[in-house]
Amino acid sequence: MQYQSDEPVTLWVNKVGPYNNPQETYNYYSLPFCQPAGNSAHKWGGLGEVLGGNELIDSQIDIKFR
């Protein structure tokens, strides 16, 4: 993918968890300090990602390509 200068870049978020226990994971937006401003877009990569619990969600963080 090629970006132009000042073009918006989508930052997808997934899940977070403690470094010392990778099996303990939480949805990114289940944390009180990571709440989205509105409805977020979801991106599913396929059945394997769904079964693995990998739900990509648009972070709605304003990032521009430089």
Describe it for me?
With 66 residues, the protein is mainly β. The protein has one domain. It is 8% helix and 17% strand. It contains one helix and five strands. The strands form two sheets. Strands 1-5-4 form a three-stranded antiparallel beta sheet, with no helix packed on it. The chain starts with 11 loop residues before the first strand and ends in an 8-residue tail after the last strand. The relative contact order is 0.34.
Quick structural gist:
The chain is mostly beta strands. It has one helix spanning 47-51, and strands spanning 12-13, 15-16, 26-27, 42-43, 56-58.
Number of helices: 1
Q: What radius of gyration results from the CA coordinates?
A: 14 Å
How would a crystallographer describe the biggest sheet? 3 strands, antiparallel
Output the helix-strand order: EEEEHE
Count up the domains. Answer: 1
**Roughly what is the average pLDDT, rounded to an integer?**
84
In what order do the strands lie side by side in the largest sheet? 1-5-4
* Class from secondary-structure proportions: mainly beta
| Strand percentage | 15-25%
Distance between the termini: 14 Å
Percent in helix: under 10%
Gross morphology is globular
Total strands: 5
Weakly predicted, low-confidence segments: none
Subcellular location: Endosome membrane; Golgi apparatus membrane
Family: Belongs to the nonaspanin (TM9SF) (TC 9.A.2) family.
GO biological process, one term: protein localization to membrane
Protein name: Transmembrane 9 superfamily member
